């Protein structure tokens, strides 16, 4: 499994950590339970301070894997936000609903699926060094 850390994107470190947690730190049973519970593909479009964008796809529908760029499976929810806001969201410092209501987070697709992101982040927080 290769790292997907992108220089200039703090969020990519968390996404890389999410990938490691899904594939190395969760047991097969824990991963299967999370996939069944979430059943969705998320695409994160992160914009850094230099206005550069990176896309990451998190498949928690079939395999429980993360890729840089658009994944092979169509995303159920596309979340666009600033890199720093993603870090705050993933670490629990920013409430997702508040971020959405204030325009910091834009969601295309299944908005209700995005509510399950808390489940994703919480389920791997104890298995991860950065989340």
TrEMBL record:
Q: What Gene Ontology cellular-component terms does the record carry? A: cytosol
SUPFAM superfamilies tied to this protein: SCP-like
Q: Where is the SCP2 domain?
A: 20-122
One Pfam family name is SCP2
Q: What is this protein called?
A: Sterol binding protein
């Amino acid at each position: 499994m290769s790292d997907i850390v992108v220089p200039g994107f703090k969020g990519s470190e968390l996404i890389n950590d999410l990938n490691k947690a899904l594939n190395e730190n969760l047991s097969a049973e824990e991963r299967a339970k999370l996939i069944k519970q979430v059943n969705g593909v998320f695409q994160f479009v992160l914009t850094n301070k230099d206005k550069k964008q990176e896309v990451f796809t998190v498949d928690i529908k079939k395999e429980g894997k993360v890729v840089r760029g658009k994944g092979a499976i169509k995303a159920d929810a596309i979340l666009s936000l600033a890199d720093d806001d993603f870090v705050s969201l993933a670490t629990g410092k920013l409430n997702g609903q508040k971020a959405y209501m204030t325009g910091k987070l834009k969601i295309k697709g299944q908005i209700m699926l995005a509510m399950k992101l808390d489940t994703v982040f919480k389920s791997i927080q104890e298995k991860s060094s950065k989340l």
